[in-house]
Design brief:
The chain is of the alpha/beta class and 392 residues long. The protein is 49% helix and 11% strand. It has helices at 22-28, 42-45, 48-58, 75-87, 99-111, 120-123, 186-204, 212-234, 239-253, 266-278, 282-298, 303-312, 321-338, 345-348, 355-362, 377-389, and strands spanning 11-14, 33-38, 62-66, 92-97, 134-138, 150-155, 160-165, 173-176. A hairpin with a 4-residue loop joins strand 6 and strand 7. The chain is globular, with a radius of gyration of 20 Å.
Length: 392
């Protein structure tokens, strides 16, 4: 196990009607005037947005409002939020929505405390030393941004999608009411579950030895998603299943399942190019890329894929490690297909002729991608090509 530090101070308010506490929590964590940041129409149609405003009003918290967040959040709205926040002298950012809304809120929070262009954090790796406090009211279990240091933004001018991170970005509080996810369509639910699984896989597929505790935590979260996702696909109003998935999503990305090890992140970075170019739902893009990545790296490094097969998918040992690992990958692909996720380029509207462009953008300024197996340009192209040419 590697040396590590772990600091995760987010206050979680979990359960039915937890959103009723939002005004008190904003005040508790220092907010007097908030930027109320939200996404699409579902937050308003459900009545959640009006309830949140009511609870803020009851606590005397004033606010400016900024809607319009889209999946794969855009830089343009971040710039607008920074300008609006400064104009209204806000001292707190409140995100009401899913991972895209929270990621955008974090970018605004950091940008308001920075004299330069907020994109420096993403493109140049400029450290995020300060940010306004962020709170969240979560409406979809997927990205895990409600408990993480991370934010991912797409630059609309360049088409580049990049992430940044800092302990300054961890939300001060996150309100997590599983009831707020019960009206999600099955496709969104499945895409969110896939994102959760791959957040775990990026940490699980590591060459660091003797990390049994984090391995077992990873496996527990993966098996929970495997158990609960079909239940909510069949019964969208199943509160207990929704609750388990929601908490799993947070655990998958606050890094409790990643400490003490070198992590990979190749699948996420490879997928980011797809969602930046084609505006693909992130979880759906991961469903296409992650199994293709697994199949490609199998020949070079089967060790952790064997463990994945045996412990997560209950595959009995086959004649060779490669055969055991392949059975696990096939089980994973079958699961993704069973919950309605795509497995091919064709299903997400991606094009084989764009592979060179996707690879060039991914590796701009670096020689390789990932850590479990170091991937050079030709390796990445082969992963994309497999996803483009497989039959499902």
């Amino acid at each position: 196990m590697e040396n590590f530090t772990f600091y995760a101070p987010t206050y979680f308010d979990f359960g039915r009607n937890a959103e009723e506490h939002v005004g008190k929590l904003v005040r508790r964590f220092g907010g007097t005037k908030a930027l109320l940041h939200y996404g699409g129409g579902s937050v308003k149609r459900s009545g959640l947005y009006d309830r949140v405003k009511k609870y803020l009003d009851e606590e005397g918290i004033s606010y400016a409002e900024l809607g319009g967040v889209k999946p794969n959040p855009r830089s343009g709205l971040v710039y607008e939020g920074i300008e609006l926040g400064r104009k209204n002298e806000v001292d707190f950012i409140l995100a009401v929505g899913g991972g895209s809304t929270i990621d955008s809120a974090k970018a605004i929070a950091a940008g308001m405390c920075y004299d330069g262009d907020f994109w420096d954090f993403y493109d140049k790796g400029t450290p995020i030393e300060r940010a306004l406090p962020v709170g969240t009211v979560l409406t979809i279990a997927a990205a895990g941004s409600e408990g993480s240091t991370n934010t991912v933004i797409t630059n609309e001018k360049t088409g580049v999608k990049k992430g940044a991170g800092s302990d300054a970005l961890r939300p001060r509080f996150s309100i997590m009411n599983p009831e707020l996810t019960c009206t999600l369509p099955p496709y969104q639910t499945a895409a969110g579950a896939t994102d959760i699984m791959i957040h775990i896989c990026e940490r699980y597929f590591s060459n660091t030895e003797e990390v049994e505790i984090t391995d077992r935590l990873c496996e527990a979260v993966l098996k929970t998603i495997i158990h609960e996702t079909p239940r909510v696909i069949r019964d969208p109003g199943n509160y207990e299943a929704r609750a388990n998935i929601m908490w799993a999503g947070m655990l998958a990305h606050n890094n409790v399942c990643g400490v003490g090890r070198v992590q990979d992140w190749a699948s996420h970075h490879i997928e980011h190019e797809l969602s930046a170019l084609y505006d693909v739902t992130h979880g759906a893009g991961l469903a296409v890329i992650a199994p293709a990545w697994m199949r490609y790296v199998l020949g070079a490094n089967p060790h952790k894929l064997v463990q994945f097969a045996e412990r997560v998918w209950d595959i009995a040992p086959q004649q060779t490690d490669e055969q055991t690992a392949l059975k696990g990958i096939e089980a994973f692909e079958s699961f993704l297909k069973s919950i309605g996720m795509p497995l091919t380029f064709a299903e997400i509207g991606a094009k084989e002729q764009d592979i060179d462009r996707l690879t060039e953008k991914l590796l701009a300024g670096k020689e390789t991608e990932g850590n479990y197996v170091k991937l050079a340009a030709e390796d990445v192209k082969k992963i994309y090509r497999y996803a483009a040419t497989r039959n499902g």
